[in-house]
Give the backbone structure.
Amino acid sequence: MTTPTPTANGSASGLRRVGLYTTLVALALIFLVPLVWMVITSLKTYTAAQQIPPSWLPNPVAGYGYEQILNNSANPVLRWFLNSMMAATLHSLLVLVTASMAAYSLARLRFRGRGVTFALIVGTLFIPPTSLIVPNFLIVDQLNWIDTLAVVVVPGAASAFGVFFLRQFFLSLPNELEEAATLDGANQWQIFFKVVLPLSKPALSTLAVLSFLTNWNDFLWPIFVLFSPEKLTLPPGLGLLQGSYVTDYPVIMAGAVLASLPVLILFVLAQRHIIQGVSRSGLKG
Amino acid sequence: MADVIEVGAARGDAPPPAANAARRAASAGRTRRATPYLFLAPYLVLFGVFGLLPIILGLWLSVHQWDFQLPNRPFVGLDNYKQLFSSDSAVYGDWWESVRATVIFTVLSVPLLVVVPLGLALLLNRSFPGRTFFRAIYFAPYVLGVAVIGLLWRFLLDANLGLVNRLLGAVGLPSDTPWVTNMPWAWISLVGVTVWWTSGFNAVIYLAGLQDISPELYEAARMDGANAWQRFRNVTMPGLRPVLLFVITTTVLASANMFGQSFLITQGTPGTETRTVVWFIVEEGLRNNNAGRAAAMSIVFALMLAVVSIANFRIFRYKED
């Protein structure tokens, strides 16, 4: 950081700096206040949340919202939380395993049909997934997967983006590594597990985090394929919560906080990965 | 490999070592030829069942009258498609209303989602202490799901209890705006929430693009006496063109696929005016048991999006020439 020098030029840049930070902070408030309000409301009592004008601080701080959602057997929020955790974790593992193997094959191995296979996979990137939702529903119905864990783990794991993303990364690795490993007598599986995967940790963790986020937040698909209260994930569960506590905002906001916490924590921890993953996906165009 | 040959040789009844080695090599060659396919297999199973099959099934469904509750699913040719385009069919009015809703939302949201994030990115592209921190804050809402965003904003925009009307009232503005139930407020709310929610995403893509523009170009422009606006027009914008094309295309697709915001925030109101195409398709296909008609709608919808995306590319390529 450079301190403004007391020249005309310097004080101008000092003023400019004040302007810059004022803008930045004002914008930050716009992005943050709604989220802060969600947390504040979740800590209020029912009456405090109905108060007009509303108070900025929950006084007294009440566990009411959280008690309601955690002790309500009709809306087993904790169960939904665990279902979401399980689904998102298994989903991202499945994406990692299948996409990394396929991407390795498409990036580093030579075989008949490689070009066609890759073109087919990339081609589906241009089909809006929502337009396949009805046929996909019929398929999981035939598999008897409706209202099971598999229905929120597996179908979305056919990730064309994952294959494309990892293939780009694998292509960037130097050939010499493989040549050296081959000379040492390693076969393709050993090269994949012992050379390529360890070198790809940044790309793999980026894809894992992005897949986790997408699955955790998915709303459209689960509301149609899950219906038993104990099978729901959090997003459709939150909709149910809104139905049962129509204007009891502390309860609804407590549910929203619970659904946000894991992804916000993941975001804080993996911020660099997420933002890099996003910016890299933009540069392929 | 070496001990295999020795064992074979020691037994005596085995082929001579050289032939044995050749056969080993041939079989190893076969395994090696199979390896790429083995690596692909797990993904291809998933991709076949949930990537390709739905496309084929969708085309097949769209020419059948498919009702989950009926035993017969008769072939109806292009009837499902014709119904979407003939004004005397039962579905015509609702279908085109949903198309209209989607077009309104897309036309209103895309310009904002292209320009606002560009502003954020230009702001964040300067070097100052805390840059990473602010970048993270602006991006944060994007990591939350539409279910959370929907519930949160339904509450914030509540005409009586909501924070938005309270804050407006506190500064002397009207404090009784029906944000989610009346027009044009419902559209303003849906667009505003979407801009708040997803701007950080596009901003990050722009930032990556901005950082790829060579600083020497700016230096050169400065030497030529170009002011800030001229540098933006002649250096920044041309440098961002590929990124801009990407942002516009993906944003149009994302906006056209909007569902959760109107499902949760305006709940389709007033009337069904904010019910979008995606919402109407799943309602027809999964709630009203018209999978065939819903499939036809999906295909028409996907074709509309393809036309828009191709037009995008055309316009941008034309500009480049």
Confidence is low (pLDDT under 50) at residues 1-14 of chain B. DSSP finds 13 helices and no strands in chain B.
